[in-house]
Amino acid sequence: MIHELREYIALPGRAEDLHRRFADETLALFTELGLQVEGFWYEVGNRARIVYLVAFPDVKAATAHWARFKADPRWLALKARTESDGPLISEIRSTFMTTPEYARP
Predict the structure, then answer these.
(1) What pLDDT shows up at residue 105?
(2) Is 51 left (phi over 0), alpha (psi -120 to 50) or beta?
(3) How distant is the alpha carbon of residue 5 from its chain centre?
(4) Residue pair 15/47 in contact by the 8 Å Cβ criterion
(5) Which region, left, alpha or beta, applies to residue 34 given φ > 0 means left and ψ of -120 to 50 means alpha?
(6) Which has the closest alpha carbon to 50: 62, 59, 41, 37?
(7) What is residue 25's DSSP assignment?
(8) Which residues partner with 40 through β-bridges?
(9) Start-to-end CA span in the chain (Å)
(10) If you count Cβ atoms within 10 Å of the first and of the last residue's Cβ in the chain, which end, N or C, has fewer?
């Protein structure tokens, strides 16, 4: 099992639109597509920085999941509709992490 830490930085003035997209539709789509979200946060004092943690069997599974997600017609329609006034995100960072042997139960 690995975890992926994903960080999104909203463009100036677009943070609330990004939060609304996650809250109203994206998280439900994640669930439908079997994405295991283990935590979801934003930085205190900076709603433009959203981070969440997801679990996958391995990096290959994560890569395959995101490729399917990016091609999913529901995501493509949602993205087009919510970005009709321009993009919401300036940057997405992804970090794959694993627990070291000495910290495993």
Answers:
(1) 82
(2) beta
(3) 8
(4) yes
(5) left
(6) 41
(7) I
(8) 52
(9) 13
(10) C
Sign of CA dihedral 61, 40, 92, 104: negative
Decide: 96 and 4 in contact? Cβ < 8 Å.
Answer: yes
Which of helix, strand or coil describes residue 104?
coil
Whole-angstrom distance, CA of residue 57 vs CA of residue 90: 29
Q: How many residues does the chain have?
A: 105
Per-residue pLDDT tens digits for 33-90: 999 999 999 999 999 999 999 999 999 999 999 999 999 999 999 999 999 999 999 9
- Count other C-beta atoms under 10 Å from residue 92's C-beta: 10
* Structural element, H or E, at residue 100: none
Q: Using alpha carbons, list the distances in angstroms from residue 77 to 27, 34, 89.
A: 15, 19, 17
Only one residue has tokens 């290959």, namely 60
Alpha carbons 32 and 53: distance in angstroms, whole number = 17
Cα–Cα dist 18/69, whole Å:
17
